[in-house]
Amino acid sequence: MRAEATDKVEGFEPPALGEPYLLTPGPLTTASSVKQAMLRDWGSWDGDFRAMTGDLRNRLLALTGDKKGEFDCVPIQGSGTFAVEAMLGSFVPRDGKVLVLANGAYGLRAAQTMQYLGRAHTLIDKGDYLPPRGAEVAAALDADPAITHVIVIHCETSSGILNPVGEISEAVYAKGRKLLIDSMSAFGAIPLDVNEIRYEVMVSSANKCIEGVPGFGFVIARKSELEAAKGRSHSLSLDIHAQWAAMEKTGQWRFTPPTHVVAAFLQALKLHEAEGGVAGRGARYAKNRDVMVAGMRELGFETLLSEQWLSPIIVTFFCPAHEKFSFPRFYDLMKGKGFIIYPGKLTVVESFRVGCIGHMDEHVMRRVVEAAAASLNEMGVDTAAPPATAIAERAKLAA
Ligand SMILES: *Cc1c(COP(=O)(O)O)cnc(C)c1O
Predict the structure, then answer these.
(1) Other CB atoms closer than 10 Å to residue 395's CB: what's the count?
(2) What is this enzyme's catalytic activity, as reactions (predicted)?
(3) Ligand 1: which residues within 6 Å by Cβ?
(4) Phi, psi of 74 (to 5 degrees)
(5) What is the distance in A from the centroid of ligand 1 to the CA of 181?
(6) What is the CATH number assigned to the segment(s) 277-398?
(7) 75 within 8 A of 289, measured Cβ to Cβ
(8) Any bridge partners for residue 216, and if so which?
(9) How far apart are CA 68 and CA 71, in angstroms?
(10) Domain boundaries, the chain
C-alpha cells in the first residue's frame, strides 16, 4: 500500500494509461492510492478489520459536526439504493406515512421503494427539476395529519439540482414531523451539519463525494431513532437496527463485508481530510463546475438550471439544436478523447450531464471543454446553442 504522505491532493495524477476520466456521479474516478488500498485481503472477523470499520464510522460521523454524541453511523452492504431502502424500512414505522418530495429519478425511486415496502406514502412530484419549497411542504403537512416523515433528496442527481433542504427541514419540524435525507450525491462535499440543519437520518454511499469505490452505503442517524427502529424492518439483510446492534456488540458487519471496498474507502477518507474535509472538497468541486460551465457556455451550450440551483456535483446541459449534433456520436468522440460523460434524464427535452465530482481538478475540466469543442468540430456543429423549446422549458424555473 502506498503511504498516505505521498498523496498530495494538489497533484491530481491522471487515471492509468488508457483509462478515461469518469465524468459521472459515481462510480467515479478515484485516486490511485484508493485503488492500491485494495491490493490486500482482510479477514472480516479479524481485529484489524474491525478497527477499520470503527475508524470508518467515526470519521463519517465527524463530518456531520455531531459534538454531543447524539448520532451514530451504520454502514450497510450494497449500492446506495439498498441503503435508502434500509433507511425507509427501518426508520418509518409500519403504521407511519411518508411524504416523498420528488423532482427527478431518485425521488421517484424513494416513492417506489415505499410501494414495495407496502407502507403509506404520498408524493409531491415537481417534475424533472423544479425544487420542492418549504411553503408547499408545510401546506401538504397541514392537509394530511397522518404524515409522520418527509424524505427529500439533497442533490437530485438526475438534473443536478441542489434542493433547499434547510428550508424544508424548518417546515417539517415546525409541523412536528421528522425528516429523512437522501444525501447520496452531496454528503462529503456539501455541508449537512446537524447543528445547522435538523434531521433524523441521512443516507449516502461509498462511491460518491468521498471518492471511494462502490460496494456499500451508510446511514447516519439519531441514536434515539436507531433504538426505536428495532423490529421494524421488512428485511433481514437491510435491517439497520440489527446491523447497528451487531456492530456495537462485536465490531463486525452481520454478513460478509466488502473488505477491499472498506479499505479503499478509509484511504479515500484520509484524502478527504487532507483536502480540508467537506469545505475543501466542496471548494474543489465548485471550481470544477465553474471552469467547466464557463467553458461550455463559451461554446454555446446552456445549462438547464440557473446559478441558484446549480450544484457543484453534476450539471445538465441541453443538447445543441444543430441538425448535425447527435448525442451518441458526441459521447463516442468524448470517450475517444478520454472522457466518459453521462446521458440526460429529462423527459421533455434532450440533454446530457457532466459530473464535477471525482479525483480531478480544474485543469482536467479545462481539457473536458477542449474535448467538447473538438468533438463539435468533428461533427460539423458550429454552435452548441439549444433549441427554443429547451429555453421555453427553462423559463418555467424562473416563473
Ligand atoms: C447515486 C444515488 C443513489 C443510489 O444509487 P445506486 O445506483 O443504488 O448507488 C440514490 N440517490 C441519489 C440522489 C443518488 O445520486
Answers:
(1) 9
(2) (2-aminoethyl)phosphonate + pyruvate = phosphonoacetaldehyde + L-alanine
(3) 25-26, 79-81, 84, 106, 153, 157, 182, 184-185, 205
(4) -125, 110
(5) 12
(6) 3.90.1150.10
(7) no
(8) 77
(9) 8
(10) 38-273, 277-398
